[in-house]
Amino acid sequence: AQSVTQPDIHITVSEGASLELRCNYSYGATPYLFWYVQSPGQGLQLLLKYFSGDTLVQGIKGFEAEFKRSQSSFNLRKPSVHWSDAAEYFCAVVPWGAAGNKLTFGGGTRVLVKP
Amino acid sequence: NAGVTQTPKFQVLKTGQSMTLQCAQDMNHEYMSWYRQDPGMGLRLIHYSVGAGITDQGEVPNGYNVSRSTTEDFPLRLLSAAPSQTSVYFCASSPSGGGDEQFFGPGTRLTVL
């Protein structure tokens, strides 16, 4: 079955430390890949997206993600976390060629930042 | 631009009541969608529209109706609310399909007693 999996429900990281959030997808063909962030009580904001080409994608707020076809993964990274990065992060996909622009989301990873 | 707006922000209903969640966008986007967010499940697509007069079902459409009479507005109707519909609802819009960025509204938190 087609799915998006974020294995880590919660991650706690110290301010200034690096962060990596995992995302795996299960689709026949590589879908469009996205990372969204949701701050407490807010809507979702797009961090970055991957369609094709360079497998290392740069996004906003200092985030980057690496697409690995062999592992069906699209992991999100940030070299040095700031307290304002505490939020919930969602990996999402849109199947290639699908009608509409229908996002399928992973379950989310909540990031807590320790001072 | 206000972007995507949703009203109300909070709502409490009793089982069996009906209501409409409003969504509007001022970006002239063709595509609009409704998602619900439940803990641990991410967001799931309820209904979507690819243009005025065209709607289709998403992953969890039961208990919800939509219509799209204008490009700007995409209301979500609950005809007979059930406790299982307690959730946070997000509306989103995008210029088109093909993986275009979707812009999300601030959400409506709905509680059904």
Task: Describe the protein's topology.
The complex is a heterodimer of chains A (115) and B (113).
Chain A: E1 3-5, E2 10-14, E3 19-21, E4 24-26, E5 32-38, E6 44-50, E7 56-58, E8 64-68, E9 73-78, E10 87-94, E11 104-105, E12 109-114
Parallel strand pairs in A: 2-12
Antiparallel strand pairs in A: 1-4, 3-9, 5-6, 5-10, 7-8, 8-9, 10-11, 10-12
Chain B: E1 4-7, E2 10-13, E3 19-25, E4 31-37, E5 43-51, E6 54-57, E7 64-66, E8 76-78, E9 87-94, E10 103-104, E11 108-112
Parallel strand pairs in B: 2-11
Antiparallel strand pairs in B: 1-3, 3-8, 4-5, 4-9, 5-6, 7-8, 9-10, 9-11
Task: Count every helix of chain A, treating DSSP H or I runs of 4 or more residues as helices.
Answer: 0
What kind of sheet is the major sheet of chain B? 7 strands, mixed
Q: Which range does the strand content of chain B fall in?
A: over 45%
Residue stretches of chain A low in confidence (pLDDT < 50, at least 5 long) are none
Strand content of chain A: over 45%
The best one-word shape of chain A is: globular
Q: Count of helices of chain B?
A: 0
Q: Quick one: which chains have the greatest interface?
A: A-B, 27 and 29 residues
